[in-house]
Specification:
Layout lengths: L11 E5 L3 H13 L3 E5 L2 H10 L4 E5 L7 H10 L8 E5 L4 H9 L4 E4 L4 H20 L1 H48 L5 H31 L8 E4 H18 L3 E6 L3 E4 L1 H18 L5 E9 L2 E7 L35 H11 L4 E5 L4 E8 L6
Length: 382
């Protein structure tokens, strides 16, 4: 009689977190994947459990009463069975110093809260696979781990730089806009000076929007771009947008027309206004002299459909999805020059619309292009 091979035991995961809800979520996620899970609510308990039954992988919170995660990791590494055990730190602290401290204490990976179940499973699977590779290909593993750590450190440094760009540049840009406004209101200046001041204000506000777009793109990458919906009067919003683009439109001899069949819409006022300013500015920039750019809104089922139409050269069908990617510009041949804007505007528009649960697309204007978007849950008469 043939002998049935024994099923290898499932890996044991030790979850160490002083928050019961966090433990429960991680336990359910990993048990659903077939792992054996052991729970500890603090550092001392975790060390006692590990000494009794060494786990195959440890998920370790950083901030805990008593022994913190760094101290627990160092003690695990000092244990005879813990030198090669993968340790994945869980923390709400996302900065270079915390990351470096985790590495110094012997951590293998670094996962920020709130933890997404899918990402948790992937990280645990990766940690267990890396443990196997480490025993077989130690030299290659060290090289890969070093490269991964460098990439993550670069990412964290990029986020720090992003914060600098956004927060430290907003103030001088706002100051430029303020002083330009003062010059525009000065009745003693010549007409040419008034026009120059108006152009300075347009440029300052455009730069301010680009800075905010950059911040929102970064938030979207981290899953943190969440609209704060309020009831917005569409007509008032459209006239604000037209007011921001008025100088640029007049300079290019382009007329703006706004119309709406929707009274109010439920959306994030700032995100929606910046989206429309980006779209209208893009349309004005590519509209021939003496033509009209139209901004209108109508109801489409349970959503508001907003359309921005120009009479320019239009956008080839093959580029109508790609144009919303960051830093894409259409140039050369018969394509509209730099139709993609300045690299971030249309990418921000797509992220802002999708954050509302809507969609954005491009249609033929015959002539020109029509940028259309939907915002679900339009609110009438509120």
């Amino acid at each position: 009689m043939a002998r049935i091979p024994e099923t290898p035991p499932q890996p044991t995961i030790l979850i160490v977190d002083d928050n019961a809800a966090n433990r429960a979520l991680a336990q359910q996620t990993l048990e659903d994947e077939g792992y054996r899970v052991v729970l500890a609510s603090g550092g001392e308990e975790a060390l006692a459990l590990f000494a009794k039954d060494p786990a195959d992988c440890v998920l370790l919170d950083v901030r805990m009463p008593g022994l913190d995660g760094f101290a627990v990791c160092e003690r695990i590494r000092a244990h005879a069975e813990g030198a090669e055990t993968p340790v994945v730190f869980l923390t709400a602290l996302r900065d270079v110093d915390t990351f470096d401290h985790a590495l110094r204490s012997g951590g293998d990976d670094f996962l920020t809260k709130p933890v997404r179940p899918t990402e948790l499973v992937i990280r645990v699977q990766s940690a267990l696979k890396l443990r196997q590779l480490r025993s077989e290909l130690r030299e290659h593993y060290d090289l890969l781990k070093h490269q991964r750590d460098d990439l993550l450190r670069v990412q964290l440094q990029k986020e720090r730089l992003m914060a600098f760009v956004v927060h430290d540049l907003k103030n001088p840009v706002n100051a430029m806009d303020l002083h330009a406004q003062l010059l525009v209101r000065d009745k003693t200046l010549r007409a040419e000076a008034h026009e120059s001041a108006a152009q300075i204000r347009v440029a300052a506000r455009r730069l301010g929007r680009m800075i905010l777009n950059l911040l929102d793109l970064s938030k979207a990458d981290e899953g943190k771009l969440t609209p704060k919906r309020t009831s917005i009067e569409v007509s008032s919003l459209f006239h604000k947008v037209a007011g921001e683009i008025e100088v640029a439109a007049r300079e290019r001899d382009v007329r703006l027309e706004v119309a709406t069949a929707v009274d109010r819409v439920g959306a994030d006022d700032d995100l929606l206004q910046r989206t429309l300013v980006n779209l209208v500015e893009n349309a004005v920039r590519h509209a021939p002299k003496g033509t009209v750019v139209r901004l209108d809104c109508k109801r489409a089922g349970d959503a508001a459909e907003i359309r921005v139409a120009d009479a320019g050269k239009g956008i080839p069908i093959a580029m109508r999805v790609q144009i919303f990617d960051p830093f894409v510009q259409l140039e050369g041949g018969n394509l509209p020059s730099s139709r993609g804007g300045r690299g971030l505007g249309l990418a921000f528009c797509r992220l802002a619309v999708e954050a509302h649960g809507g969609r954005i697309w491009i249609e033929d204007g015959n002539p020109g292009a029509v940028f259309a978007l939907t915002i679900p849950d339009a609110i009438e008469g509120v």
